[in-house]
Design a protein that fits this description.
Length: 410
């Protein structure tokens, strides 16, 4: 019997793999410009890392995590997100000991046992970045601008929504008020939200169910519960964003699904890919480092889902044109082999046709590869332009390389 991939998991190949690479490479270039350093984090972590960071009452920890016991009896989890691991590494590797501040980026797979649908998988991939050791709203503005730069370079339009959650203390007061409000409207909430009123009332504001959206329309607003200095910080951030020419919408309902956020939270959202419209999201988590056993360190970060970005990209920018080298008969295999490797050394994208057969079958393959040029290797090698149909005969294979080079490299 044929073995199938596991539900919620995907093979990324062909044009999708190209899009995937294009996104990662574009993001890397932008990270590089902003002087972020890469960190390659483990896929498996002690399960308590996520319980203590993401939060016990979150969907991720309650029902989405891949948790198992390894052969040594350790309770481990496949990472559901990157920030917790980055914070763990920041503490464990004593990065803070160097002083100053630290800017890290990462890329790779995340795992969440969610209901699979378009733009939602059980293994998905993120690019993300974190800044440790700065509390200035300058860093919030820079991070948001960096995400915007990545989206711009990918040709993706998304609206930016921002909010502030303030400090834990005033948020607690807000949550109490919100809870009181929600108790009154409880009957109109969806079943999941009914339980959230007690465990995680903020999450009700984030519920995608229409009736929940409606019944929380007049809910108290977090900004009314924050002390002056948190508001001032928010005002400063908005000023910086305006100065950078970044449009944004203030959304007082934006709360994010993880417990560790403080002050700034933001999302880049699009309507073009259905309900799963958040393509990048992040915020500040000033208490998390301390909470996980490190020194008090203000921090912030973002993550973007690569699969959702892929849905928004039509085409990757043009690549070098392909030339297919066809030995007319086996007798010319060696010449074709040498020619192909010379072409690749000169930077040309080259397919040496590896399968024997009739010329017709070879041409069929060349077309399937998307050949822009074909070189027929025989005593007198020939070059065919597949677009114009023009054919030229050359003295030696090397002569072809000189001519082709100018035509195929973009
Ligand atoms: P959502 O509200 O869409 O579930 P989230 O708040 O759970 O998102 P984060 O944990 O902030 O998402 O992750 C950041 C980004 O990672 C999301 O904006 C999205 O682009 C992507 N992402 C999250 N979960 C998935 C998933 N199961 N499949 C694909 N992409 C995902
Ligand atoms: Mg989610």
């Amino acid at each position: 019997m044929e073995i199938k991939k596991v539900r919620g998991f995907q093979d990324i190949y062909g044009d999708n793999a190209k899009k995937y690479r294009f996104i990662v490479e574009t993001a890397r270039e932008v990270f590089e410009k902003y002087n972020f350093q890469e960190i390659i984090l483990p896929y498996v972590e002690d399960v308590s890392l996520f319980i203590r960071s993401v939060g016990e009452m979150t969907d991720i920890v309650q029902k989405e995590m891949y948790v198992f016991e390894d052969r040594g009896g350790r309770r481990v989890a496949l990472r559901p997100e990157g920030t917790a691991s980055a914070v763990r590494a920041f503490i464990e590797e004593r990065m803070y000991a160097k002083g100053g501040y630290h800017k890290l980026f990462y890329e790779g797979a995340m795992f969440r046992y969610e209901r699979p649908q378009a733009g939602r998988y059980r293994q998905f991939h993120q690019i993300g970045a974190e800044i440790f050791g700065v509390d200035s709203p300058l860093s919030d503005a820079e991070l948001i601008k960096m995400v915007k730069d990545i989206l711009d370079r990918l040709g993706i339009e998304a609206r930016l929504e921002i909010n502030t959650l303030g400090d834990f203390e005033s948020r607690k007061r807000y949550m109490d008020a919100l809870r009181e409000y929600l108790k009154k409207t409880k009957d109109t909430l969806c079943d999941i939200c009914k339980t959230r009123v007690k465990t995680n009332p903020l999450r009700v504001l984030d519920c995608k169910v229409e009736q929940c959206k409606q019944s929380t329309e007049d809910a108290p607003k977090i900004t009314d519960f924050l002390p002056e200095e948190r508001i001032e910080r928010y005002v400063k951030l908005k000023e910086y964003l305006k100065a950078l020419g970044i449009d944004f919408i203030e959304n007082p309902r934006l709360v994010r699904g993880l417990d560790y956020y403080t002050d700034t939270v933001f999302e880049f959202i699009t309507e073009k890919i259905g309900a799963q419209g958040t393509v990048a999201a992040g915020g500040r988590y000033d208490k998390l480092v301390e909470q996980l056993g490190g020194p008090p360190t203000p921090a912030l970060g973002f993550a973007a889902g690569i699969e959702r970005l892929m849905l928004l990209i039509d085409k990757v920018p043009s690549e070098n044109l392909l030339t297919v080298v066809i030995p007319l008969t086996d007798e010319f295999n060696l010449t074709a082999l040498k020619l192909s490797s010379l072409m690749r050394e000169r930077g040309m994208k080259t397919e040496l046709l590896l399968k024997a057969g009739s010329l017709k079958s070879k041409m069929k393959l060349a077309n399937r590869f998307g050949a822009r040029f074909v070189v027929f290797v025989s005593e007198r090698p020939e070059l065919k332009d597949m677009e114009t149909g023009e054919q030229e005969v050359f003295e030696t294979a090397e002569d072809i390389v000189d001519v082709l080079e100018k035509r195929v490299l973009v």
